[in-house]
Each structure stands twice: as C-alpha cells, then as structure tokens.
Design goal:
This protein is an alpha+beta fold. 18% of the residues lie in helices and 43% in strands. 36% of the residues are buried.
C-alpha cells in the first residue's frame, strides 16, 4: 500500500510539473462582465522559446510579448498596462481570469477556445437589420447624460465602428448583427467593453453599454448625418488671470523638470496630460512618437505629464518607463500625480478642470498658452482622426510662424 501511495505521489508531481505547449494560431476568448459575454480575438505564435500574441479589434493589432508558460499555466501581460490574463490550459481551451493589478478586487472570469476566429457569431449567420450610418447618441448613467456620435459600418452580419465623445473615442469596436440586434465589443488589455442595441419601430437605437466589472449605461441613438460634438478646444481653458502653465514635477528618474527650464525657452511646447492606463493616451502617444522626430528640429518640444493609478513614485515611474520602452517614445515624461481628475486638477490650478485623459496644451514661443485640446479622436474614428492631425499641424505651424511672440 505504501509503495502504491508513493507511486501515486510521484505521478501527481510529474503531472503537475509537465510542461505544456500553448497552441499557436487563432483563439477566441470570452471575458465575463456583469452577466455579459465579451468576445475577444487573439493569435498566438512562438519564436524560439518565446511566446507572443496579438490582440485584435477590427483593424487594431496589439502585441503581447510577455507571455509566460509554466506547466499547464499561462500568464499573459497586457501590453503596457498593469493587467494580466491568468489561465490554465485544458486541451484546446484556456480557463482563468482577467485581472487588473492596480484596482482592488478586479478579477473577471476568462475562457478561450483554440481555432475559433469569429466575434459574437460566425459570419455565415444571416443578419436582419442594417445599422450602418452616423448617429447622434446619448449615454445615460443614473441621471447623467453624455452626448456622443456613433459611427457604424456593416458588411453582411459583421459590424464595426466606434463612439466619439467629448473626452475621447471608444476606439476600435467589432461585432455582429444577430436577429436584429447589434453587438459590439472591444478588449485592449485594460478596458473591456460590450455594446448592444436594437431599433425601435421609428428607427431609434435603444441599447446598453457595459464596461469592466460594474459600470453600466443605457444609450439611445438617432440617425443623423450632421451629428456633432462640442468644440474640443473650448472645454478646457485657463482660469481668469492666468496665461501660462507653470509646473515643477520629477521626471521618471526623479530629476525635477520645470516649465521655466532653458530647454523650453523660445520654443513651441506641447504638454500631453496622459496616463499609461489610458488607451486614448496610447493612441495619441503613437501619433506624437512618429510626429516628434520629424519636427523637433523646427523648435518644438513635447513633454508628457503622467497621471498614474497609484500615488507612488516608484510605481508610476516604472509604468511610464515600460511604456516608453515598449512604444519607443522619443520625448520625455514627468510624474505629475494620480489619475483621479479632481486630484489631477490640483496639480495644475490654472486650468478650469482636468476633464479628459489625454488633454493637449499648446504653448507659444513666448511661454503663454495658445490652445488646449480636450480628448482625442484616434485612428479608429477615420476622418475624425485625419481632421485632428490636420488641425494639430496647423496649430503648430501657426505658433512657429508667430513673429509677434517674444520670450517672456
């Protein structure tokens, strides 16, 4: 009997320590949020001994290059974000959790199936309603209303699109139309979104929006080719009596950086109110990282003001360092505070508020604030992204050409 027990123990130990291979190819995952299934798609590959994956939302591809496999366990670090997927391999399935390390008790059930590529349903399923077009949208949460613009593109039963809001867009949404209901989802490694809606008899969209473990809104939309948002340059502004942004914050190595430093004098300065937890900020950072090397010699400086998830310098600087390395960001950042908007506003008391991450502040060669752009319309918004780039370049050019600006 003792020999049998020993043999059983050895068998169990060997079984637990057996190294499994994470299957390479397409996976369809599901994150469970608030009773809803959020489908997400990713592809796994292996180069040498290193696993990598690519998250996909419509045209977007997000590289995950920190994947660790031990025995039958998998940990997938989510890009630049302080979040992970922990799962066990069960044949051609993964079963586990999606966790955000910086949020208390944030742990959502996760599962994935190998070899599946569809979103909500397979493409051959028949659609019965067309949701294509531009919509004026209202999101409602406990009596508070946020206006938005919805843009949807449908091909058969496959649906893509996004929502633009005054503080940013919902980036790349992907889904299907099933039995007259639109279904869209996005999973970028930090944010988890599900949208559903149906049309009423008069063509009004009525639906729900779920985010993460507890946020829920209802929403309505009416088709409107002229739907628009407030001017993004009117929402954040300097309080009366101010014409400059004055600050002194530590950079990611602890060295103090001030608005009065020599490096900024006589230059056009772009301040980016930013956080590594913020996907819209990630989109803007990609744009600025490509733009800056082509334009820095014209007399332009960019400085990111990072507002992170914890009031801890080591944590915050570590997150920003990781982001700079992974995204190959060529401009500098300072650690300005935490992501709570009221607390962030206290660090920049000359602003009426901090309404959005990101917010972009344009400073002229004389050191005074010329424009402030709230939010960001990223590449998932199509023509709106192109318009942002055009306006951005126009603003910088005007400030560089301003002969009246003298150093103060």
């Amino acid at each position: 009997m003792r020999l049998i027990l020993v043999l059983l123990s050895v068998t169990v130990l060997f079984s637990c320590s057996t190294q499994h291979d994470l299957k390479q190819g397409s996976w369809r995952g599901i994150v469970a949020i608030q009773g809803q299934e959020l489908p997400m798609n990713f592809t796994v590959k292996k180069e040498g001994e290193k696993y990598m994956a690519v998250l996909r939302n419509d045209e977007e591809e997000i590289l995950l290059d920190e994947i660790f496999v031990k025995g039958d366990s998998v940990i997938m670090n989510m890009h630049i974000f302080d979040s992970e997927i922990h799962a066990k391999m069960e044949g051609e399935k993964l079963v586990g959790y999606f966790v955000k390390n910086y949020e208390k008790d944030f742990k959502l059930p996760f599962k994935a199936t190998f070899g599946e590529e569809y979103r909500f349903v397979k493409s051959e399923d028949i659609q019965t309603e067309d949701f294509s077009g531009k919509y004026a949208v209202n999101f409602d949460h406990e009596g508070d209303t946020t206006i938005a613009v919805g843009i949807f593109h449908q091909n058969g039963n496959e649906l893509t699109g996004t929502f633009l809001t005054p503080i940013g867009d919902y980036r790349y949404l992907q889904g299907n139309v099933v039995d007259g209901e639109m279904m869209l989802s996005a999973f970028d490694g930090n944010h988890a979104f599900v949208f559903r809606a149906r049309k009423t008899e008069d063509g009004l969209l009525e639906g729900d929006y779920w985010s993460g473990k507890d946020w829920h809104e209802t929403w309505t939309g009416v088709k409107d080719d002229n739907a628009s948002l407030p001017d993004a340059e009117s929402l954040t502004f300097l309080k009366e009596g101010y014409d400059k942004i004055e600050f002194s914050f530590p950079d990611i190595d602890g060295k103090m950086i001030s608005s009065s430093d020599e490096r900024f004098k006589g230059k056009v300065v772009i301040l980016q109110i930013f956080g590594t937890w913020c996907p819209n900020c990630m989109d803007e950072t990609k744009f600025l990282s490509q733009w800056y090397p082509r334009n820095k010699d014209r007399g332009v400086e960019i400085l990111g003001l990072a507002y992170e998830a914890k009031d801890d310098f080591d944590y915050a600087s570590g997150r920003v360092k990781k982001m700079k390395e992974k995204m190959d960001v060529p401009y500098d950042f300072v650690i300005a505070g935490n992501k709570d908007k009221e607390e962030a506003a206290k660090t920049l008391p000359m602003l009426n508020h901090v309404l959005s991450f990101p917010t972009t502040i344009f400073i002229g060669k004389d050191g005074t604030v010329k424009r402030i752009h709230t939010g960001f319309s990223g590449p998932g918004t199509g023509i709106y992204y192109e318009r942002f780039i055009q306006r951005f370049n126009q603003t910088v050019q005007e400030l560089l050409d301003d002969k009246s600006a003298s150093i103060k």
